[in-house]
Specification:
The protein is an alpha+beta fold and 361 residues long. 54% of the residues lie in helices and 11% in strands. A five-stranded antiparallel sheet has the order 3-2-1-5-4. The protein has a two-stranded antiparallel sheet with strand order 6-7.
Length: 361
């Protein structure tokens, strides 16, 4: 829920309106995070900003770029900045605040890097950083149906797609680290050897990779610790350090399967984000109802399958010489394993299952 601004919060407005701020701006007070965005702010539990950002599907960004209109125009500073503003506006219309801010930040930072490289006559060197990605699956997905076979700055579109490629690489790597860090809590098994040690190097030997600025701000008569975070990896480091320090509970939603920061009751198992079944409802609102419905479906599926299974098992014992019958029995068993998976994933309905089962009756 967005906290409404009150009189006396002019400093917060200055923070969010500052033109030179390209990053995720957070006030951390030891108990929660306050995210500043779009001239307002929202409170998150510790870990909540990170979990929201990790829900993003990078593949959805391509259509957002392509839907911007005529962007196959010359890549001037003005054209690129205008496109970035339009893209940022789209992010805030489609994604929740933390995710939208993260996406906008990544593109603004990318444009900044691109602009500095061009201004300093080292654009070829900067483009060279992408060479390992050229021709890969991610590159093909991003650049398919376009006239470009490489990254570059011939048009605004090519610049934005190139920055998108860099974002996709950074996001996938960060998501991998995110899932590995929480793997131990879920499975009680240590992550792969050396993984944790390598990650914690970012707090020590590789501290320069922390792209985080810090300053104090006077807000409503008190001093606040304000952090500006300039990359998704830095957000991961920022949040994870405070998750460890405060023992903040991060759990997996039993409906959508995404990680979320528990807030309030310690036995909360459903998140407050739109559910995949009914986006107009949150997982918290309908998760228990869906779980009950799924259990009932599972019970019905298991019961009906069991009836057919027992019939074939008895026939096979009575007629062991009937190879066709035995083969059908095996097909029933193998098919059921596949159907259990499809029903769990939602790629098949119970009606389709019963149609399949009917063929064995």
């Amino acid at each position: 829920m967005i906290t409404e601004k009150k009189q006396g919060t002019e400093c917060k407005e200055k923070i969010t309106e500052s033109e030179y701020e390209f990053g995720i701006i957070i006030e951390y007070d030891g108990k929660k995070n306050t995210l500043f965005y779009e001239n307002t702010y929202k409170n998150y539990p510790i870990g909540g900003i990170l979990c929201e950002c990790m829900r993003v599907r990078p593949t959805t960004v391509r259509d957002a770029i392509r839907d911007l209109g005529d962007i196959r125009i010359g890549a001037t500073d003005e054209n690129i900045v205008n496109t970035a503003f339009a893209l940022s506006k789209h992010f805030y219309e489609v994604y929740p605040p933390a995710a939208a801010t993260m996406l906008a930040m990544q593109f603004y930072e990318g444009i900044g890097e691109w602009g500095r490289a061009r201004k300093e006559n080292r654009l070829d060197e900067y483009i060279g950083l992408f060479q390992t990605e050229i021709g890969g699956d991610v590159f093909k997905f991003i650049f398919e149906d376009t006239p470009y076979d490489n990254v570059g700055d011939s048009t605004v579109e090519q610049v934005m797609l190139s920055i998108y490629l860099d974002f996709a690489r950074c996001f996938v790597n960060s998501k991998y680290i995110f899932m590995k860090l929480f793997e131990f809590e879920e499975t009680k098994q240590e992550p792969e050897e050396g993984f944790v040690a390598k990650f914690f190097n970012f707090y020590g030997n590789e501290v320069p990779f922390q792209h985080i600025d810090y300053r104090l701000a006077l807000i409503d008569g008190r001093f606040a610790s304000i952090f500006t975070i300039h990359s998704i990896l830095s957000l991961l480091m920022f949040e994870f350090a405070h998750i460890l320090d405060t023992d903040a509970p991060i759990v997996r939603c039993k409906n959508c399967g995404e990680m979320f920061a528990q807030e309030g009751r310690s036995d909360t198992v459903y998140c407050s984000y739109p559910s995949p079944q009914k986006p107009e409802k949150t997982c918290g609102e309908i998760g228990a109802q869906i779980a009950r419905a799924n259990k009932e479906k599972t019970d019905i599926v298991t019961r009906e399958y069991r009836k057919v299974y027992m019939r074939y098992q008895m026939k096979s014992k009575r007629h062991p010489e009937n190879t066709e019958l035995i083969d059908t029995f095996y097909a029933l068993s193998d098919g059921m394993r596949e159907w259990r998976k499809r029903l769990k994933e939602g790629s098949g309905s119970t009606d389709q299952f019963f149609e399949w089962l009917h063929d064995f009756e």
